[in-house]
Design goal:
The protein is built from eight helices and 15 strands. By secondary structure, the chain is α+β, with helices and mostly antiparallel strands. It binds 2,5-anhydro-1,6-di-O-phosphono-D-glucitol and manganese (II) ion (2 copies).
Length: 338
């Protein structure tokens, strides 16, 4: 039997393909790996440990924080801070970015943005959730204060991005801009093994994923595209199947493996949809493009949006290239705004 490659080995092997790499990025992956294992452990005893349910407070976006949101936020933050690997972090769960001001952190050139638990309303009902992360080089000088601009960079500036899916197995999927690879966690020994090498989006897909409860509030172009997915056309395999979990990571991961489109459009009263550009859409878009798919806000590349605030939202249409192109055409012809 061929020897399996662990995530740690893989990251180090890749590091050696870049002469001059200092290993800092590899160590950041080490910290993310550790925090992922802690979150995995808590999620997997969600029913018996005191981790289910609301923490009793709201985050900056007015959303009810779950106990696991708070737990995961702390674990990722402390794992990254404790090793002096990053100088700052911005989280969906915090009002503002945090600066790690220990001397060992101040010299670091990286910042991290994170959605500690994506799909957290699904924890209590035993449905897959995830973690999404994104790594940038700071734009401010090393050893000086960390500034907002370090975080407000377009997605094209990402150095690495990934997600962990806590599903029927736990997997970590990431890119450093040279393809996408997936690793499956073996909980019996606490190791992630390379299981999905060079993941690529099928060009076509037969799945559309959207919260159709919002249908009547969607822009005309989105409504027409959904009807297109549902119409019969034997030549193009339509009608497509509708699949919606309500955890972006889980919906995205399924579509990456099987082919499909995930949509979170604008809807009445929410001109920028629901999903957050920095913590959710940019990392997912980086992975998507590296896997040969398209990530669009309905008009253009997600990765080219210049963010203007930390918790900014954007509509998202992401997945198999042919499907996203068709969705964009519908929006161009019938309107993408509500
Ligand atoms: P989070 O738990 O980080 O706030 O994210 C939830 C997001 C995303 O995972 C999912 O795609 C979407 O919310 C589901 O929203 P609806 O319930 O409106 O469909
Ligand atoms: Mn989320
Ligand atoms: Mn979240």
């Amino acid at each position: 039997m061929k020897d399996l490659v662990t995530l740690g080995e893989f990251v180090i092997q890749k590091q050696h393909e870049y002469p001059g790499a200092t290993g800092e990025l590899s160590q950041i992956f080490g910290a993310i790996r550790l925090a992922s294992k802690l979150v995995h452990r808590e999620i997997n005893k969600a029913g018996i440990a005191d981790i289910v349910g609301s923490a009793g407070n709201e985050n900056v976006q007015g959303e009810d924080q779950q106990k696991l949101d708070v737990y995961a936020n702390e674990k990722f933050k402390s794992a990254l801070a404790a090793r002096g690997l990053v100088c700052g972090l911005a989280s969906e769960e915090d009002d503002d970015f945090v600066e790690f001001d220990q001397p060992m952190n101040k010299g670091s050139k990286y910042v991290v943005l994170i959605d500690p638990v994506d799909g957290s309303s699904n924890i209590d009902v035993n449905v897959s959730v995830g973690t999404i992360f994104s790594i940038y080089r700071r734009v401010s000088p090393a050893n000086g204060p960390v500034i907002l601009e370090d975080f407000l960079q377009p997605g094209t500036a990402q150095v690495a991005a990934g997600y962990i899916i806590f599903g029927s197995s736990t997997m970590l999927v990431y890119t450093t801009g040279n393809g996408v690879n997936g690793f499956t966690f073996d909980p019996s020994i606490g190791v992630f093994y390379l299981s999905h090498q060079n993941l690529t989006f099928p060009k076509k897909g037969r799945i559309y994923s959207v919260n159709e409860g919002n249908y009547v509030h969607f822009p005309a172009g989105v409504k027409k595209f959904i009807k297109y997915c549902q119409e019969r056309d034997d030549a193009s395999d339509r009608p497509y199947s509708s699949r919606y979990i309500g955890s972006l990571v889980a919906d995205f991961h399924r579509n990456l493996l099987k082919g499909g489109i995930f949509m979170y459009p604008s809807f009445a009263g929410h001109p920028k949809g629901k999903l957050r550009l920095l913590y959710e859409c940019n990392p997912i878009a980086f992975i998507t493009e590296q896997a040969g798919g398209i990530a669009s806000d309905g008009k253009g590349r997600i990765l080219e949006i210049q963010p203007s605030e930390l918790h900014e939202r954007t509509p998202l249409f992401v997945g198999s290239s042919e499907l996203v192109k068709v969705a964009e055409e519908f929006m161009e012809n019938h309107g993408s705004e509500i």
